[in-house]
Fold:
Amino acid sequence: MLRSSFLSGEITEAGADEAGRGCLAGPVFAAAVILPPGFESNVLNDSKKMTEKQRDKLRIQIENEAVTWCVASVGPEEIDRINILNASFLAMHKAISGLSVSPGLLLIDGNRFTPFPDIDHKCIIRGDGIYMSIAAASVLAKTHRDELMMKLHRDFPEYGWNQNKGYATLIHRRAILKYGRTPWHRMSFSFSEQLKLDFNG
Structure:
């Protein structure tokens, strides 16, 4: 069960989370959300524990009711240049920078974060299953990323991005062996030996 919208209640808090960190293709997305006092939802949770229909419905509610929200992304070229962990932090920084209200505290999902200038933060392991603001950010990051991967699928249908959203499913990996990588693939992710094992197995 989610505990609360807020850690403190005495300071304006923004929850932040990312989506797509473990993918082979597509950008990594991040969202930052400030929820209003009294925000209510019976289904809001870690986005991975919700159905696609629940996420899509909640996205509308969050975007309509949040005090402010922002979604940002970092593409494959930048991921390859600075690595996926730093790219995830960069996407979060971009999302936080896009908020129309500056929070006094950042609630970050996970155990590491690059400090954002002049705003304190607290890292919370599995925070998207504890605090509503982080869960809301996880929903926005996930739904916005999924929406892009569905669009990219139209240009690259061989890879099954409409189903796997860029994650390393067997269909996706075998398609890379057969067709090669697209400009949306992360070239720094090495998995050639695993691909051969899967393909020949």
Summary: Helices lie at 52-65, 76-82, 84-97, 132-155, 161-164, 170-179, 192-200.
